[in-house]
Specification:
Helix 1 packs across helix 8 and helix 7 packs across helix 11. Helix content is about 40%, strand content about 15%. The protein is built from eleven helices and 13 strands. The relative contact order is 0.13. It has a seven-stranded parallel beta sheet with strand order 3-2-1-4-5-6-11, with helices on both faces. A two-stranded parallel sheet has the order 7-10. Strands 8-13 form a two-stranded parallel sheet. Bound molecules: NADPH dihydro-nicotinamide-adenine-dinucleotide phosphate (NDP) and guanosine-5'-diphosphate (GDP).
Length: about 325
């Protein structure tokens, strides 16, 4: 049985990845930070909470990371923990950097010192591209020009991960993942905010959905497909970085139109209002990724398309709220 350590196991990707690895007969260890109320709802929804071995720790605390690595004796480490919300990163730039940037040095150190043969996955982000190469499809070779404290922290972590590979000969792969969503997505992200909002309107629990920039475009895929790509990267002989994306881009308005349609509500514009509060100090206008390298070298491709993703999310929120 192979041991895997997942940081961020209570998050969207951590939960799907834990399920994926358990189904492959891994023993899964998950790093969990202390909260006043534990956050296990995703693992509970997937029915795997009792199958994961939890280890206490925090990305800002070196000793707890050392202990997690020593106790789990991993052959694969998936570093998914992060302050992952771009909006918050302007309000809590220092915290974002401490967790998403400096925290990555700490987990890399823990792996270098206590499990140097383990394969390491770093959760890099398409946000690192920012508005570089405007309008172009982004690949592994596209220049990076981050536009938020989150993206800048991720960029630091990305290069630090590459540097540990080059400096210490560690197996470190970075997945440059474009936005990926699911019914387990955090409620503050625009897709889940829309699916939840549409379900509330449909059920008479709300009458409006307040959003920011409706013109913004993203390459949205399904998180369940994307965690498989993380695993595939660590099954390679040599570590490499890969873009993971669908290659399609849609606007926030497109997502709204499609979501209201799934709920059988016509004239979506009557229910959506703009609120300046949800605009960003600096916007990343559009993202579209080219994952042909992952297609060729990993044999990875997305299985769930945009329409299926929106339907899955709206139906899940309708079911939750109907209960
Ligand atoms: P989530 O926000 O759903 O999950 C983040 C996880 O990190 C949670 O388990 C959270 O724990 C944990 N965490 C946060 N701060 C700390 C800390 N100080 N110490 C330990 N754990 C901490 O993110 P996703 O699952 O969506 O994303 C996974 C990773 O992939 C993140 O690094 C994200 O930045 C990156 N990424 C995500 C993309 C996406 O579209 N989803 C795109 C590209 C990259 P808790 O439950 O206690 O809050
Ligand atoms: P991000 O790509 O990681 O920032 O993912 P988000 O889901 O948070 O945001 C995606 C895009 O939706 C960004 O361009 C936001 O500006 C835009 N957006 C528009 N309205 C909202 C909103 O109300 N909430 C969020 N989170 N994003 C919004």
């Amino acid at each position: 049985m192979k041991n895997a350590l997942i940081t961020g196991v209570t998050g969207q990707d951590g939960a799907y990845l834990a399920k994926f690895l358990l189904d492959k007969s891994y023993k899964v260890f998950g790093l969990v930070r202390r909260l006043s109320t534990p956050n296990f709802w995703r693992l509970e929804e997937l029915g795997i909470k009792d199958k994961v071995e939890f280890l206490d720790g925090d990305m800002t605390d070196q000793e707890s990371l050392n202990n997690a690595v020593k106790l789990s004796k991993p052959v694969e480490v998936y570093n998914l923990a992060a302050q992952s919300y771009v909006g918050t990163s302007w309000k809590q730039a220092v915290l974002t950097a401490e967790v998403d940037a400096v925290g990555v040095i700490k987990i890399l150190n823990a792996v270098k010192d206590f499990a140097s043969d383990a394969k390491f996955y770093q959760a890099s982000s398409s946000e690192m591209f920012g508005n570089s190469a405007k309008g172009e499809v982004k690949s592994e070779d596209t220049p990076l020009h981050p536009t938020s404290p989150y993206a800048i922290s991720k960029l630091f972590a990305h290069w630090m991960a590459v540097n540990y590979k080059d400096s210490y000969g560690m197996f470190v792969s970075c997945g440059i993942l474009f936005n990926h969503e699911s019914p387990l997505r955090g409620i503050e992200f625009v897709t889940r905010k829309i699916s939840d909002g549409v379900a509330r309107i449909k059920l008479g629990l709300a009458d409006k959905l307040y959003l920011g920039n409706l013109e913004s475009k993203r390459d949205w895929g399904f998180a369940g497909d994307y965690v498989e790509a993380m695993w595939m990267m660590l099954q390679q002989e040599d570590p490499e970085n890969f873009v993971i994306a669908t290659g399609e881009t849609h606007s926030v308005a497109d997502f709204c139109r499609e979501a209201f349609e799934v709920a059988g509500i016509e004239n979506w514009k009557d229910y959506v209002a703009k609120n300046e509060k949800f605009m960003r100090p600096s916007e990343l206008h559009a993202l579209k990724g080219d994952s042909s390298k992952a297609g060729k070298e990993l044999g990875w491709e997305p299985k769930v398309n945009f329409g299926e993703l929106v339907r899955m999310m709206v139906e899940a929120d309708l079911e939750r709220l109907s209960k």
